[in-house]
Amino acid sequence: MIEFLVNGRIEKVDQVDPNLSILEWLRTKMRLTGTKEGCASGDCGACTVITGTPDHQGNIRYEAINSCISLVGSLHGKELITVEAFQQETGHPVQRGMMEKHGAQCGFCTPGIVMSLIALHANKEATGQGDDQLLEALSGNLCRCTGYRPIMAAGRQALVQEWTPEADHPAAALSSGTGSPELSAIHRDSITLTAPDGPRYDSPVSLEELRELRRAFPDSRLVAGSTDLALEITQQLKTLDHLISVERVAELKAYAREGDELVLGAAATYQQFHKALCDLWPAFDAMLERLGSLQIRNRGTVGGNIANASPIGDMPPALIALDATLVLDGPDGERRLPVEDFFHGYKQTDLKAGEFIHSVRVPVPKTHEQLYIYKISKRLDDDISAVLGAFRLTVEDGVVANCRLAFGGMAATPARAPKAEAALTGQPWNDDSVTAAMTALAGDFTPMSDVRASATYRQQVAGNLLRRALLSSGANPGEPLMVTDYA
Ligand SMILES: Cc1cc2nc3c(=O)[nH]c(=O)nc-3n(C[C@H](O)[C@H](O)[C@H](O)COP(=O)(O)OP(=O)(O)OC[C@H]3O[C@@H](n4cnc5c(N)ncnc54)[C@H](O)[C@@H]3O)c2cc1C
Ligand code: FES
Ligand code: FES
């Protein structure tokens, strides 16, 4: 059985198919139909709701998430706030802003937009409240008829107004940030959710329990934020028989500096580790801001991104460039291997039966090291990469002493470019060497053409990214940033 709060009221759920998304549960079991289904794939944001997740200090993290690709079992011990919580006449500043600035036309996207803006309003002291934050909050919400100018105006107006709900308001806890007594009364132990006809969802809270479950059920599927996995349910219409969630295992959620490494627990979300990683390697900042939408980054994890083994996942090339190490755990104990060696082929990995990713160990920068990460996608926000280039270089006295050049989108797995690396290593960090490396790069990959990009485009843009790194490094002052002719 799982327990959670919905708009301030305790819900206990048992005997439900764990393949059910929060969205389906809300609409079909609770008849709370204000939350809409647009795409069922995390792309449009019509299904946005807010979850409040308690941390160990008793503070609650309120986040906008896509309910269409979040599973009902993930709600245990959390607070769920839907648009129905804001039906009262007094209204929230976001609702008033949307009305007064004409932020809705057909209204289908509106509940999701309202929830994204309310989540930003609740977090505004921590995140800031400028246009950058508004754009980030709306990065996962598509509106096809109003246009974003009035929606931005609504957000600007709302963010400078305070919201002081009555104590009995169904979302009152949003303004206090500490949660209600009912929420803290919910137990924090492991749970199992089962459907009458079989499918099962386990959510252990300790590493030992997770190992035990994996030992007992090696064919079970692991789930973290479900931003990849749930698409198998909503798009491929699969029923997954047994899911084991890593989301509540404390050791897997942790991220901390250990000596000369930053250790990211596999179940840490992008939003959680963003600052710690970017403080060390600022090049991640721009990339992480473009990884999915805010709703996706609130749920998606580094372990899920690596285990998913997509050739166009954004973290793996960057981690390969950094020579990060994976810690795998399972029935036979712990083992380590370079992230680079984890990928065997398209969606094939080194994970053995019953194993799971425990964490990834990211080295801290050494003297003279530089990191560049460039993501190329058709759309700026919430789009998967066509190509991602990640370059770690050690430049001493103007010479490239070492380099690791890794790419996503160029092969069946994220991979390094050995010929380009050889062409650059030991050479001056200048235009001639980079041009030679770009030529060598043509021998490293035979990219494919697909909906995201043609093979020719991929090959050309991958080389251009190397030149972009040179230009960004300031090694060639005065060079124009846009360079297209390198043949
Ligand atoms: C709209 C949308 C936009 C997206 N945009 C991007 C993008 O721009 N860039 C990008 O890289 N990705 C993107 N993604 C993909 C996805 O969000 C990421 O890959 C995310 O990091 C997956 O993490 P998760 O926790 O949600 O994984 P889940 O979906 O929970 O799991 C993914 C896979 O990993 C396995 N797994 C999970 N945790 C572990 C573990 N600890 N050990 C072993 N196996 C494990 C699961 O069994 C499953 O096979 C997007 C997805 C959506 C829906
Ligand atoms: S329904 Fe489109 S993101 Fe959920
Ligand atoms: S108001 Fe129609 S899609 Fe946004």
From TrEMBL:
Domain 2Fe-2S ferredoxin-type: 1-86
Segments traversing the membrane: none
Domain of life: Bacteria
CDD domains per the UniProt record, alphabetical: fer2
This protein's UniProt keywords: FAD, Flavoprotein, Iron, Metal-binding, Oxidoreductase
InterPro entries named in the record: 2Fe-2S-bd, 2Fe-2S-bd_dom_sf, 2Fe-2S_ferredoxin-like_sf, 2Fe-2S_ferredoxin-type, 2Fe2S_fd_BS, Ald_Oxase/xanthine_DH-like, Beta-grasp_dom_sf, CO_DH_flav_C
Residue stretches making up the FAD-binding PCMH-type domain: 194-367
Keyword field contains Oxidoreductase: yes
Protein's recorded name: Xanthine dehydrogenase small subunit
Natural source organism: Marinobacter zhanjiangensis
